[in-house]
Specification:
The longest helix is centred in the N-terminal third of the chain and has 16 residues. The protein has one domain: TIM Barrel (Alpha-Beta Barrel). The chain is an alpha/beta fold and about 230 residues long. Helix content is about 35%, strand content about 15%. The protein is globular, with a radius of gyration of 18 Å. The strands form 2 sheets. The chain has a 6-stranded parallel β-sheet. The protein has a two-stranded antiparallel ribbon with strand order 7-8. It contains 7 helices and 8 strands, in the order βαβαβαβαβαβαββα. Helix 4 links the parallel strand 4 and strand 5. Homotetramer.
Amino acid sequence: GAGRIELCAGLVEGGTTPSMGLLQAVKQCVRVPVFVMIRPRGGDFLYSDREVEVMKADIRLAKLHGADGLVFGALTEDGRIDTELCTALLAVCRPLPVTFHRAFDMVHDPQVALETLISLGFERVLTSGCDSSALEGLSLIKRLAEQAKGRIVVVPGGGITERNLQRILEGSTASEFHCSARSARDSGMKFRNPNVAMGASFSAPEYSIKVADVAKVRTLNAIAKNIL
């Protein structure tokens, strides 16, 4: 029932650029639009010249392998939208639609940032209302949607579940929403070494896999249809 997929790797880091092999495999399996995350690493959204070259190359490859849209965000060191870099990246993305991701939640002034994104030509902005979750940031999301007046789609995202979706949609007046709809699935490994981890201490455990939960997607979609 999902209307669109935001394809990412590295969900523990909030999403990074997926492999082109993954994009190809997904495009063979689904008919809904697939928007590809362009984020060369986790951490902040202040990018070096080398990282920018990687982002441009990834955008070109994603377009080549069937991306229906792109998702990225870039900020200046003082917490504003990096208009120069965004303009350059948007030029590489076109004619595909582009979403500015939750880098927006790290801006110094969200109202000013929204006007900047509109002037640059982004089709959507994903936000938790500059708070820890969309529910916590609900009042700001509503103000941003009112400010946008249809000039850009304000998409609530961050901690959305079947338990809070109705409240978020009704409270924000949003017409779209974003969520991972994931659950943990136990690994099929019989032999397990508890003394070794394949990443930093904050990473997901090796023997539990996060997967998109079909039942959750259907439930969320049904809730949204009732409200929208």
